[in-house]
Design goal:
By secondary structure, this protein is an alpha/beta fold. It contains seven helices and six strands; from the N terminus they run E-H-H-E-E-H-H-E-H-E-H-E-H. The chain has a six-stranded mixed β-sheet, sandwiched between helices. The termini are far apart.
Amino acid sequence: MPAPASAQSPCGLSLVLALDVSSSVNPAEFTLQTGGLARALRDPAVRRSIIAAGGIQAMALEWSGRDQQVDIAPWSLLAGDADISKFADRIETHQRVHTEFPTALGYALGHAATRLRKAPLNCARAVIDVSGDGVNNEGFEPLLAYRNFDFSNVTVNGLVIRGADPDPVAYYRAEVIHGPGAFVMVASGFDDYETAMKRKLLREINGAGLALAD
């Protein structure tokens, strides 16, 4: 099990990794998400970026319906190869909890913001990295989450799996991303998830070292 984050500092980045397990995601596609994220974290370039940034604080969760948010890996301080490997292993071996619920993005964002506020370390930057293959179809929209939860100094980035109708890429760009420097990374399909996640992690993590230098 990954070593828990402790009350040490400095910390450049708190990162919430939120994976879509709504009913549109079949078992093979879920495995492509968890396996792709784990392999992206193990990638040598990503490992080097994490270590060069002085380590990051991270957790992962699955989300779907209004009340279907489940931790995949708890808050962990990733400061070296062993920490990163254990965290990646935890994600790759996670057994999906929910399979039959809709896409409640507003609830997912509110939950992620709450988890950020309970993180052990107060880091220079806070990022919610939300993956999804569709638009919100249950509960309140992301805009209401941003109005009613504490997203001060939080960036929300999106990794969108292209292919659904209506187009989730346009939706994420217009409704989901939020905060300073927010961006959308697009995967052409679940088979492309690992490559897109690697690019996304490098972009997010490389800012952590800069934050510590400020």
